[in-house]
Design goal:
- The protein has 14 helices and 13 strands.
- It has helices at residues 14-17, 29-40, 54-64, 89-99, 109-116, 118-127, 146-156, 183-197, 240-243, 247-250, 262-276, 310-317, 322-336, 343-364; strands spanning 4-9, 45-50, 69-72, 135-138, 161-165, 179-180, 202-206, 212-219, 223-225, 229-230, 253-254, 280-288, 294-300.
- A hairpin with a 3-residue loop joins strand 8 and strand 9 (223-225).
- Helix 4 (89-99) packs antiparallel against helix 5.
- The N and C termini lie far apart (43 Å).
Length: 365
Amino acid sequence: MSQRILLLYNSVPTEIKKDNTILWECVSPLTVAAIYEALQQTGSEIIPVNLLSPKQLEETVSEQGPITLAFVIAEGFLEIPETLYNGFGAMAVREALMGLGIPSTHSCPEVMKVCRNKNLTYHVLRNAGIPVPDFFVIEFESGRSVEEQVEKLEEVLSYPLFVKPVGGGNSICIDKQSIVENREDLYDRIEILRAVLGDYPVLVETFLPGREYTVGVMGNGDCYVLPIVGFPTDTVVRSAQSKISPYAARKMDILDVRNSKCSELVDIAYRSFKTIGARDLVRIDIKEDSSGKCHVIDFNGTPSLSSTSSVVAMAEAVGIKYPELIGILLYEALKRAGIEPTAQLIELVSEPIAKLRAFHKEMVA
């Protein structure tokens, strides 16, 4: 019997998404089509589902029959929109799949919870000795007023500060105004986030003015660091809008493996991957402070796979085509789940995995 892969995603029309911040985690129809076409080259039957609710997922699995594995880029359930940004959607989707006995791509539910809640990410990494910014969490349902919490925050953090949601990803509510220089600006920014996302916690951290990098890591037992992307030094804040610009327009630099910064970035990324217990594929955002020391500022357990994404640029830099990248992700998930990949998938990924191994060996030499 052929393998049957459930492709789970969240997508809405572009004109609806662009005017609704809470839907920014939804992928474009073009990305869905590209992943679907890539998966079709793996020799499996692909069943695409725009994920609306847990009930819809159960009904789909019941109607479709046995599913080999779910390829998941859905960040939650469209009919429960808060799951797209509250930090628990990616975990909830995987818990639902586990309940149905279906393995999935990317990390397990517990790890997804850590990835999608930046305060948890920071706690786990800091406890392992991995540098993260100093931070404070504003909680609207803590029983303490925002004013009380800000006073406490100012005892441990100094301006300028950076304000972002605790949960979610895709730079939701992040732009140049996320940098605040004083208490008045901080109050204003907190209220903006609250107006958009409701009473979900807000993360306030020390602003890091240095260069930003992003590092992709693929694999499980054997992990491979992808080519490292460095952003221009004049890129102060990477907003959602900047991330959807074409590769050339973003002026991303692929760092030469001989760059003196590479060893530090590889060490931080590799240790972060192992510490958090991630699987298959992650993208780790790292930023320098004023002295050039690197800190992890985000650990993305489901990095974008759009044609303009950093991960795709990393893969292309080492000679891996889009269908091959998608194939490697599926291959890693199947092997981890103890499922033998199809002969067609093995043929698709054999040479690209060899390229990854060779590059990784050069990177860590």
